[in-house]
Design brief:
10% strand, five-stranded parallel beta sheet, alpha/beta, Rossmann fold
Length: 492
Amino acid sequence: MNCDLFISHVEEDEQDVRALAEVLRHRGYETWIYEENNLPGVSYLDWIIGALRECRAVVVLVSRATLPSEQVGHEISTAFENQKKFVPVLKGLSHAELKQARPEWCHAFGTAVDITLIQGAAAAVAERIAAGLWAMGIRPAATVVPVPPAGQAPPPLSAPAIEKAPLRAPPFHCGSIVPPDYYIDREEELAQARELIAAHQSFLLAGDLRSGKTSFCRKIIAEMLEGGKKGSLPVYLNLQNCLSQEKGSFLSHTVLSIVGEAARVVFNRKYTDMLGLAAGTPSRAEAEDTAFREFVTIFKFVRSLTHTDSEDKAPDVGGDDFIRMTNDLAEVIAARGWGGVTVFFDEANKLPGKLPVELLVANEEQLAASKVTSIYVANHAMIEFFDPLLETFGNRISLRPFRNMKEMQQLLARYYWGDISRTADVPIAPGANKLLWEATLGRPYAIQLVARRSFALACAEGAAFVSEAHVRKGQAEALAQFPELFDVKRNA
């Protein structure tokens, strides 16, 4: 039984596993997956145990469907007992979520770095896995890619066998929030935000249309929760979804968001679970957990103030009740190791005309008194409206376009290869790179919008790379659909 790599997974992820295996085989690695390698009549346990003993590394695809799987757990245990190296691949969940749900798996993985698999990016992830295997000294038994003499570096992933692969259109995020691991650069702004949050200082986050403000917030939130960190609890609230922006309803939506996130992150409970606990009797273990018992009491109190049986609209919360509830919440989550709360008020530019800025200032004072750090997210065009608010906390971060073409090339490499260092391997002509940079003014969203169309046009023609003509056509299509995005004066 020849086997370089054993791929552990559940049936729900079979399609992704087959896609990973196909690329890894192209790179010369013999893979073992249950759907392709088992034989009828033979005990599947014998086959699996045999493959795990003979393989040189184990790739574990972990999705939410994997977490309750006893079979995957047995495979990880067997591989660990046989001292196999692991390559964890996460699909649809973070490392922190995996660690919380299956800490014993993380223990088995040890210090192995995981990689995230998103829809449509299996080929790029498989290339990264192949690179990691090379780095670990696990060379393919088959020699599809030339193996260098001992002591020399492995061949680059842009070796001829890979360069001949057909051009493909990367899954750019256009019109959706960019996942944190696809958020490129903005390091200065991220560092400034981290510093302010650590100091419990509120600030205004400003940026032009489609400048990545929401993705910036999601990036910071992911960092705040990464690896089970327990600093300030991040809470996201999109003000565009609030039915009204009166003072009481504003505070009501804020405290409900804090309670919901505390239930999910701090106490690992769904909001619906809390509704059942509030209406029923907690288990003995829950009753003996002082912090959780107090949280249930706060939850009931919040519900009594913000919901009624006769109205769909949440009743207003007064300032005194708000301070009392948030102070109580701060004490409860502090008992679990959390230091305060940070609320991201996205789409704050929707507030003008509905909520006086003086009211925001008063709310900010109440939020600060309740140990809540607030971040207001708004367009540059509305900055003057927030001047009184800025005078209250004095901090502002402005999101800018990319500084240079290299940052744009790193974005393209991230989407095409899953690796920002492979800028030279992206199949786009130098002139097309320059034209893409000039056409988009270095704005990440515009880059993705034009690049997606440019790559799609090149693929449709069967081209080997993206040319200047493809970028011109891609820009024309994007301009026709989103003229406001390419309005230089509007975005100046």
